[in-house]
Design brief:
221 residues, single chain
Length: 221
């Protein structure tokens, strides 16, 4: 979708229950879920408004073997317990004391794994997203500001109003969910290593980051 055309799709609530991803989608190997999330739409129904973006970049985290995961070595804490819960729930945490990051819990209950949503392409509610991120209207944004609107995990959460209040929320519910797109999503998936995990020893080299090739909204080329 061209940058200048985003934000003009009127959401149809009648398609929600048809298109919304079911629990079994998430109850699969994390790497499979991560790649299959690309092209799907992340939706937040907030204050009577729909905020929606196409998922264009993700990272996978598997606690049992992944030193980059909060749940590495199956460590259960108050923060990570949602990762051990049923699949298809949101894991939202704070980084640097100021930015929220949203993850999708995957695999069967008891296996700590999740997929970080790193970037989305704005589709619906862009005026609200612009206000949330910049305190401006869409018309006041430069093309660069539009590109940067949701091109990172903290950015997309700020733009879409996703906070710690959404932590552990059921993605099969009616507030925060992921759904299939009704677009003809044909794209090439790029596989690479993850970002900003220099502390993670051998996990630095895990090829667990996936993004849509040439999409302008990814966080880092």
């Amino acid at each position: 979708m061209a940058v200048e055309n985003i934000g003009h799709i009127k959401y149809n609530f009648e398609r929600k229950n048809i298109m919304k991803l079911k629990r079994q989608f998430y109850n699969r190997p994390t790497l499979d879920v991560a790649k299959d999330l690309l092209g799907k739409n992340l939706v937040h129904y907030s204050n009577g408004e729909i905020l929606m973006g196409k998922i264009v970049e993700v990272e996978a985290y598997i606690g049992a073997i992944d030193k980059a995961a909060h749940s590495y070595n199956n460590k259960i804490t108050e923060r990570t317990k949602v990762m051990f819960g049923p699949p298809g729930h949101a894991y939202v945490y704070l980084i640097y004391g100021m930015y929220n990051c949203m993850n999708v819990v995957t695999q069967m209950e008891g296996e700590a794994a999740a997929v970080l949503v790193r970037a989305v392409e704005p589709i619906e509610g862009i005026n609200i997203m612009a206000h949330n991120r910049y305190g401006k209207s869409t018309e006041e944004l430069t093309k660069k500001q539009i590109i940067n609107l949701t091109s990172g995990p903290g950015k997309l959460c700020m733009a879409m109003g996703i906070t710690k209040l959404n932590n552990s929320m059921d993605l099969c519910g009616d507030i925060l969910w992921i759904e299939d797109s009704n677009e003809d999503n044909v794209f090439e998936v790029v596989t690479t290593t993850r970002i900003n995990i220099d502390y993670a020893e051998e996990a630095i080299d895990f090829p667990w980051r996936f993004y849509i090739k040439d999409n302008p909204f990814i966080s880092k080329k």
